[in-house]
Prior knowledge:
It is a single chain. The two termini are about 35 Å apart. The chain folds into two domains: about 5-225, Jelly Rolls; about 245-464, Beta-galactosidase, Chain A, domain 5 (Distorted Sandwich). Strands 1, 2, 4, 5, 7, 12, 15, 16 and 18 form a nine-stranded antiparallel beta sheet that branches. The protein has an eight-stranded antiparallel beta sheet with strand order 28-29-30-31-38-35-34-33, with no helix packed on it. By secondary structure, the chain is mainly beta. It has one helix at about 300, and strands spanning about 5, 10, 20, 30-35, 45-55, 65-70, 75-80, 85-90, 95-100, 120, 130, 150-155, 160, 165-170, 170-175, 180-190, 205-210, 215-225, 245, 250-260, 260-270, 275-280, 285-290, 295, 310-315, 315-320, 325-330, 345-350, 355-365, 365-375, 380-390, 395-405, 405-410, 415, 420-430, 435-440, 445-450, 455-464. The protein is about 0% helix and about 50% strand.
Amino acid sequence: MAPVANGQDMIEHPLTDLDGFQAPADNWRIVGAIEADRHGVADIQTTDGDGILLNMPSDGVRENLFTMWEHGDIELSFEFMMPKGSNSGVYLQGRYEIQLFDSWGVPNPTYSDAGGIYQRWDPARNEGERGYQGHPPSMNVSRAPGLWQDFYILFQAPRFDAEGRKVSNAKMVKVAQNGVVIHENVELTGPTRAAGFSDEQALAPIMIQGDHGPVALRNIRYNLHLPAAAEDEKPPRFVPAIHVEPTSEAEVIRGFVNHDGAKKTRTISVGDPDGVHYVMDSAQGAVLYAWKGRFIETTDMWHSRGTQQLAVPRGSVLTFSGRPAVARLESDSIVWPDSMGADYVFKGYDLDADSRPSFHYTMSDVTITDRLLPGDNGRQLEREIVVSGDDSGSSEIWVLVAAATTISEGDDGVFRMEGNTYYLELLDSGGGEAIIRALDEGEELLVPVSLSDGSATVRYALIW
Length: 464
């Protein structure tokens, strides 16, 4: 089946069959859906269908895969998923590898971690010097095994004169993983280790590594020309960027944040030394974003008081609905409110010994304490909501644990959110039974809480 344009100057490589690849071996196949357990090495379940390219190597067959089409300069994007401990790679022109790897939680990534440009290799060099010119990603923004991740790559092919002599090196102009730029303008002096070819050419196919571990890819799109800068693009401001990073204790910054096309003016950004950060909207008792990696840029807030005055997260961001976390509902069929209403009052926050805040609210006849902490060595964000007071009101008190386009519960009791974009584990339901309810625009995960003992606690972990 021939590639088709997707309407955005990108060509979509169809994954209805393997016809777009050169002589695919039996370790490659097309599937319709996939789940990979973050705890199980090579533990993958699939369903029939199309849209996903899957590599399942075995002792008998573990071949690399090459596209039928070739490229020089290229703009490339794709999504990938792999199970715990897996290893693969995508080779531009079959020669220059962007590493795919289970690098979840790695504090100091190297060239062999996800997003790394793999090293070159020369067996003629002295021991300890044979590997050289590997480039680690600027930060680790990898997600947990079993979650979909994405790459966006701008690659400039090597240039040759009329006699075939190379006159300029290949270059990774830009590489972004999960929305974060991790490489810019990295020159590649030659093929990286385990490349499909040892020479360099103006045109060649993409190679996907199949001889290491399982990997799935989808939404493979490309443009065989590097996109030109927009003619009306404004020149960059030559202003030193102002970044805030937590060191020995948490950083708490009040300011403005964009969310869902609107400026939120009562937000509190919290950065943690463990490398997991979030933004709380104090007007709603709602978490707007969570991310890992670096904390925030405050240039627009603190330099000459810019017109937007916005804080900008610097890592790979999860975006949440921004709806209030706690509400009274007469039944589980009542629509969740968009705002807390007049009976909600933000009472401020206090800091613990590590400067991590606990937020306090009142809602009519109840009080709410809301606390978020990193967990599992910074690989997840745990939220604890404590509701205290009298439950003699005319309607039940509910906690909105999550709102997403899709929510499904796995066999392990962990919820898969947004089509395996992140996990949610309900650690304490406060004595209530969680329900998933369908909406016109998606689904919600709700928990009713009982205050018969004076208080109830709901705890959950966001894992990505």
